[in-house]
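Complex 427.
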Amino acid sequence: MLWFFATNTRVALQKDNLRRLLRTVEALSDLGPVITAERDFSQCAQAMLSVVREAGGAREAALFALHDRPSLLRSLASEGFALMPDPAVVPLLPKHIHALTTLQGPTILDAASYEIYLSSNGNVAPELFKCIAPLKTGGKLVGMVALGRREGEALYDPGEFEALDLLCHYVALAIQNHSLSQTLTQRVSENLRLLASLHGFYDNALQAFAAAIDVKHVNVHGHSLRVGRYAAAIGEAMGMEPGEVAALRAAGYLHDIGKVAVDKRLFGKPTALDPDEFREMADHTVVGHQIVTGIEFPWPRIPEIVRWHHERADGSGYPDSLMMQDVPIEVRVVGLADTFDAMMSERPYRESLTLGGTLSEIVRMTPQKFDPNVVQALLVQVRRDSVGSNRIAFLEDRAALNLAPTDVDHLAATLQHKMSNGRLYLT
Ligand SMILES: [Fe+2]
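Predicted structure with fe (ii) ion bound:
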């Protein structure tokens, strides 16, 4: 007889285990699509909570995520509770975090254990929760599932916790993933904001620098600022990235920084410079290079641009007599922007050239002195001014000197003709 009862009990237990296992598998198969569905995380949290609540046989449930500084649990979703604030917040002391972290799976709460795991200082009474399950990944607490009353006030059975624990493991992973992606987004936007403010700061500081470089003579006032602006516009017309364009602007502002060491008298000399004076003036490239080398600018190439902006495509420039292919494209852009502005500006020993005269001269000197692609980009910007399609005029204060679009087209055609060595390509 005893043997009969024992066998029956064993069979009943096996059936029970099998039922639990089936329920767990069923809940897990529900949870999979819920976690991986493409939707808003709050909807995902709500759906996960429903699955867990049903698996736990609860009528009420809430899902919490752990937040740092200050440590607290904040609800992501809740259902079934008559009065549950949104969000519900439960501040945690270090002892609570320790207790929740060391908790191995779900546990039933009673009057004696509430304060071990939760504080009463939040906007929700811990007594609403009858069973809690910690959410952990890699041994680290990331949140908590809290179950409230069951149908008919039935008690929770620790024998059912295995399934709940398994589900909570997946919920914990989903919460961890979400908080990681949120942190990443926050960090990226914070870095971008810092970078933007840093660029603003640099731009303002460099503009002040550029103005200071050009104080030596009235004829060069505003030169570095204009070169920065022209270089950036040429880079933009060449399809460069915003970061590269910003670098060109900064390099234009600083390209003549070495002139701080040149005798002020040379800038106002009404005749051509003698060889010694020319050497002193030309040395501004090397002196400038010495000044900016070692400064950690947010853009590369500044030292090369400062040193080589007077190099010419045929190797006739200074200080290193480099050929076009030996200097980076940024150097060629700033070199052309510098020449363009210098030709359009008055000097003590010569009048300024007109815009048309300047561009004709530049096209005449290309490709011997300048990179044709850079010259073409300069023409693109001037043409945009001529048809009024530049939001801010490329020539800004010199817009009155503008050319007719047909004149710019004529110059572009001349450049093309030169580049194809006089050959005509008919289509
Ligand atoms: Fe220069």
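The pocket of fe (ii) ion is lined by residues 255-256, 284, 309-310, 338 (CB under 6 Å).
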